[in-house]
UniProtKB/TrEMBL annotation, chains A, B:
Keywords: Heme, Iron, Metal-binding, Mitochondrion, Molybdenum, Oxidoreductase. One of its GO terms (cellular component) is mitochondrial intermembrane space. This is Sulfite oxidase. It is found in: Mitochondrion intermembrane space. Residues 96-174 form the Cytochrome b5 heme-binding domain. It comes from Amphiprion ocellaris. GO terms for molecular function: heme binding; molybdenum ion binding; molybdopterin cofactor binding; sulfite oxidase activity. Its EC number is 1.8.3.1. Its main location: mitochondrion. The gene is SUOX. It catalyses: sulfite + O2 + H2O = sulfate + H2O2. It comes from the Eukaryota. One of its GO terms (biological process) is nervous system development. Catalyzes the oxidation of sulfite to sulfate, the terminal reaction in the oxidative degradation of sulfur-containing amino acids. SMART domains: Cyt-b5.
Length: 576, 576
């Protein structure tokens, strides 16, 4: 993290107060960035808070645990010796003012102060931001509750962390807002939707569609399930795992019905690491060219997880699939248990050869990242069709149909297809284009963020991102340019958590997982602004197109042009 | 053909003489284009002639036979009535001057006159060019022999065609040059190389590397073998089919040796239509950015043929391949029978899973377009690895080795790999990039040619080309722009010969053949020049990159940016 690095370098000089003043512009810019969401998410901010209290998914080790604890300890020790800090350490709540959530929410920048709530207390942590061992991630909680973040970052579950927090207490949250933090279920079809992590940037609340902040996305090779982008088409169905049934139809032997227990015990458990990407990832860049229909996704409608389950191939064989079926069958259809008001289920299909191939690795997955699949991702069973657009990875799977025809669903027939930039809603013929299956080569820059400011004194710049290609094609190279595409350097690729051994190299055509990449390059001596660009290459040597307009399409799908980010370089003179 | 259409429209007005004068500038420009070859081909022109006498490959029906014959008849009838033609009809050869081949070669433009030779006679066909029913293709023979072209276009084998020709006789070819037209074999390693069609544009004579003119390439969905691009790395070996042996090694059962007869009789004959493309196709466009190492291919180092032979899968199974081999083996290596002076053979390898997959369709082919594979294309047996770069489709196949390692050949290890544009010969590490296997999405414009002139009175413009993608990915769309990429129209795709039923749609992932495409669009009213651009999309929705510089690489491979052609529009006023 640039900000974290800057914070660390600043602590070498001057007093804490001076440090804070020095760091203000950068932190403020960062805070502004972190707090700004996509156009539609602002409306959902209060909802996010309401639903953000309890977090089952303890994700220990997401931060480097030991280092962070040491840093906290160190801070606490220093802090105890300080006498010049203006914030009072108040332990008794009775003497403190009571604030509304609305008031707390106003404090989410260094200018207005950074407030957070925790178990009914209100804390002004403005002073603490620059010292936070976890860097600028603390800004994600600005104006809201700490609980969901601390649940994710288990390192906070220590007494001395609470002691540090108590130093910053400035008030109490009023009872009414505290109660609101317990979700009240309403009668609308989305009332039983699960709680989500408030860090997600919401593109649509009902159905729920949200993506993580980019800088969090590239922190982990395996995306924690809570941060994995969510793309629901309908309300999340509540499925009782004990009575769950999966029906397999269309084969000569008749219908095969399997319970969850059947899936887990009658078939070998197979695990893959696979990246899923929404066809609309990076749609916002197409919207800048000309408005399209669709959710305004940023660059993070893509995530990577491990998936375990029964192979679809094994289940189809058990249901009577034999090679001669391929003489008439061409597709395998999936129906979800999620329905609209008319009872129509979500549906999609994939080519039969992908479904039955030993090398296709299509799973009926019941685990995500080693745990039961969370409700938002298809509990208890979803299809994972690695290398294939998210829309075919049907969640809450209810039915599998071997068929001569593609799924007749809206999403297969009249959506998720690509068209020429010259095609508009008056001329489009959905039958003229194939349903998106494999996705093309993709990459994006997660750090630095667009419009960030880099200090000249940093001398180098670290750029990070992800790269992935569909169809099991392995990413073999990512080129990065700091001058808008005139000259290029090759980034380091990574296929595992940082500091850990990389995942074993996949067999040809089965590279289902993304690669994270990183490059540290000297700041160009005379530049005042950099246009950072990335482009990836897969092992079929497919490249990303240079620009957005020639791939623009009316649905805003398949947005995979070079990703571009502009940053400013601040000369040292400006600071002194 | 634009020129042909122009000729037809012109014959509606004025006398023949007037017509010729009107048409001169366009024909001259066209002639200049057709006669200009790539930089290196000029040196080989005389060689081409020497080797161009006999043509076994009768390719009847390449032109629409009936129409052309009617046109000839019509012409002959009109001609017989004419009295104002200046060229004398001379039947007796004794009274005619004798010319050297050198003198004939000087006459290959409308300015200098168009001369051709036929069976020792020299003919000035300048007058006839605008009337040729086959359009501007006649210019391909300018300054040389007619025989190889007439052998290809069987419609010429009629008495009245000879009568027409005789009208234009102006002399005799001297005996010495006539004898030279019988190839004299020398002692150099390339002396037994086969004869080639003189229409090919030679990029290198030894080894022989040549491509057809683009406008011929897109005339046929199945490229006639004589026109199929030739890419040899070494002299063509002379292989006796009766004693030919293929060795299959590396499997537990020991070495399997097969004769040509074994291949033809012990295994089912399997036929596919597959496009092969050289990794260096369109390299000349990279050379314009910055010089690269490699043959200066135009856009026609790609061709499409039907291939028949035994499946490699079947042969490997017969040689003892079992699934457990895949536990240690990863590659299948191929060695050619072509050798350099040290005895090193050409070699390459492909991933094992491609080789053994039922859907991989890898052939040990002994037929091309329904006949024995011609010497230049690997007689008697070559590997056809559909969807994979030409370099792995090893010709004159001598040995197959199942192996844990890739081929150690120069061409696998230190060639045919892609690099970042920032990588130069000082920094390149060939181990850092994967050997090219599947090729990326590709398309190019075959008609009109760059720098062609279009008449405003034509009102519409027809653009033609080809599109193909590697890995069995089907081309699903070609976008064409007449304004340099600002606006786009969708071209018509074709997967069969014109006027015939298209080939059946391939199963997913097995679209090995290209598509030809065509679009007829109104000429933009105010434009004086058009920048025509094409870009293709495959069913993984991979697109071509916009520009060449960002994909430039030191070997000039994988050149698949949008193809661009500039044409001028001539206003009617200019002509009158």
């Amino acid at each position: 993290m640039l900000l974290l690095r800057r914070c660390h370098s600043l602590t070498r000089f001057g007093s804490l107060i001076t440090q804070r003043h020095q760091v203000t512009p950068a932190v403020a810019s960062c805070a502004a960035r972190l707090c700004s969401s996509s156009s539609s998410s602002e409306d959902h901010r209060s909802h996010q808070r309401v639903h953000s209290l309890s977090w089952k998914h303890g994700l220990a080790g997401l931060l480097a645990g030991t280092g962070a604890v040491l840093a906290y300890g160190l801070h606490h020790h220093h802090k105890a010796e300080r006498a010049d800090i203006g914030v009072q350490t108040l332990k008794k709540s009775s003497s403190l003012p009571v604030f509304s959530q609305e008031e707390v929410t106003k404090h989410r920048s260094l200018e207005d102060g950074i407030w957070v709530t925790y178990k009914g207390g209100v804390y002004d942590i403005t002073e603490f931001v620059a010292m936070h061992p976890g860097g600028d991630k603390i800004m994600l909680a600005a104006g809201g509750a700490l609980e969901p973040f601390w649940a994710l970052y288990a390192v906070h579950n220590q007494e001395h962390v609470l002691e540090i927090l108590s130093d910053y207490k400035v008030g109490e949250l009023n009872l009414e807002d505290l109660k609101k933090q317990q979700a009240v279920k309403s009668s609308d079809p989305y009332s039983s939707d699960p709680e989500r992590h408030p860090v997600l940037r919401i593109n649509s609340l009902k159905p729920f569609n949200a993506e993580p902040p980019p800088e969090i996305l590239s922190d982990s090779y395996i995306t924690p399930s809570a941060f994995f982008f969510k793309r629901n088409h309908l309300p999340v169905p509540q499925v009782d795992p004990a009575s769950y049934q999966l029906h397999v139809e269309g084969l000569p032997g008749g219908v095969l019905t399997l319970s969850l227990e059947d899936l887990k015990t009658r078939f070998p458990k197979h695990t893959i690491t696979a990246t899923l990407q929404c066809a609309g990832n990076r749609r916002s860049e197409m919207n800048k060219v000309k408005l399209v229909k669709g959710l305004n996704w940023g660059i993070a409608a893509i995530s990577n997880a491990t998936w375990s389950g029964a192979r679809l191939r094994d289940v189809l064989l058990a249901a009577g699939y034999k090679p001669d079926v391929a003489q008439w069958a061409r597709h395998v259809q999936f129906e979800g248990l999620d329905t609209d008001v008319t009872g129509t289920t979500y549906g999609a299909s994939v080519p039969l050869n992908k479904a039955v191939s030993e090398e296709g690795d299509v799973l009926l997955a019941y685990e995500m990242n080693g745990e039961d699949i969370p409700p938002d991702h298809g509990f208890p069973v979803r299809v994972v069709v690695p290398g294939t657009v998210g829309a075919r990875n049907v969640k809450w799977l209810g039915k599998i149909i071997v068929s001569a025809e593609e799924s007749s669903s809206h999403w297969q027939q009249n959506d998720y297809k690509g068209f020429s930039p010259g095609t508009d809603w008056d001329t489009v013929d959905f039958k003229s284009a194939p349903a998106i299956q494999e996705l093309p080569i993709q990459s994006a820059i997660t750090t630095p963020a667009d419009s960030a400011t880099i200090d000249r004194s940093d001398e180098t710049l670290t750029v990070k991102g992800y790269a992935w290609s569909g169809g099991g094609r392995e990413v073999v190279r990512v080129d990065v340019s700091l001058d808008g595409g005139k000259t290029w350097q090759v980034a380091q690729l990574r296929s595992g958590e940082k500091g850990q051994a990389p995942e074993p190299s996949p067999p040809p055509g089965r590279a289902w997982a993304w690669k994270l990449w990183e490059i540290t390059a000297p700041l160009p001596p005379d530049a005042q602004e950099l246009e950072i660009v990335c482009k990836a290459v897969d092992n079929s040597y497919n490249m990303q197109p240079d620009t957005v307009p020639p791939i623009w399409n009316l649905r805003g799908v398949l947005s995979n042009a070079w990703h571009r980010v502009k940053v400013k370089i601040r000369e040292d003179e400006d600071e002194e």
